Amino acid sequence: MINLKINGLDVSVEEGTTILEAARFIGFPIPTLCHNDGLSPYGACRLCLVEIGEPPRSKLVTSCTYPVEEGLIVRTDTERVIRTRKMVIELLLASSPMSKTIQDLASKYDVHQQRFKQEFEECIMCGLCTRMCEEQMMAKAIGFRGRGQNRSIGTPFDITSEECRRCGACMYICPICMARCQGPQEESPLCNACLNLSPPCVETYGQKMCYMDPCVACELAGPYRKDKQRKEKEESAPVAR
Asked: Rounded to 5, what percent of the chain is helix, strand, coil?
């Protein structure tokens, strides 16, 4: 067994376990987009970043691909981690703002702006579809093509693959295809229509956060907070003369 610390908690897991698996096993949520339990780890989206080691020599690693080590110190929700995840979400929004999955992540992590050039693309290169096709459907009908900004997913030479059975598994697992969000417009890529309210009872510290998902206190305080925000907005509005 491998012994390590996750958010100050002593944990023992089997050798070969990833940090993501260990953290989720004991109840610490880590967001993912390119990860699926039935597929090989890929580490493309970078949402699952965690901080390992002690400052000032600590570093960020992708928890879905990093295996546990003896004596490893892991922190899943430090200020550095949250700041980086927000940046990643902004980059994802710049590519595919019509994905409800990404919009929900933006709401959950309190992202209210998107500072990068808007592309409105249909793919975030997470590789879920190619791994699903190869590893679960045993077809290997699609894959990555090209490099850099010219990289894309499709069949070799854009010729219809004889291996494709039109099973739809690639569309089923795609975070862009699975649910479309009609909220954002071209001039405003952020919807926030499903905005999660900030926790009313828990303060955010540098090394610790609330791990209740969903938080009961947040759900109970939601209607009260919305009514309070509406009243404050009405009171601050200029009075017509």
From this structure: 30, 15, 55
The structure tokens listed for 86 are 């927000």
Which CATH code is given to the segment(s) 2-117+183-211?
Answer: 3.10.20.740
Helices (H), the chain: 19-25, 79-95, 100-108, 128-131, 169-173, 216-236
What's the CATH number for 128-173? 3.30.70.20
Q: Say if 2-117+183-211 and 128-173 have the same CATH topology.
A: no
Structure tokens at 210: 């609330």
At residue 223, the 3 state secondary structure works out as helix
User: What are the tens digits of pLDDT across the range 121-155?
Assistant: 888 999 999 999 999 999 999 999 888 888 889 98
Q: Kindly list the domain boundaries of the chain, sorted by start residue.
A: 2-117+183-211, 128-173
**pLDDT tens figures, 98-126:** 888 898 898 888 888 888 888 888 889 99
Q: How far is it, in rounded angstroms, from Cα 64 to Cα 66?
A: 6
Nearest to 23 by CA among 75, 59, 65: 75
71: left (phi over 0), alpha (psi -120 to 50) or beta: left
The DSSP code for 70 is T
- pTM of the predicted model as reported, rounded to 2 decimal places: 0.77
Residue 73 bridge partners (DSSP):
5
Task: Name residue 121's amino acid.
Answer: E
Q: Is cis: bond before 29, omega within 30 of 0? A: no
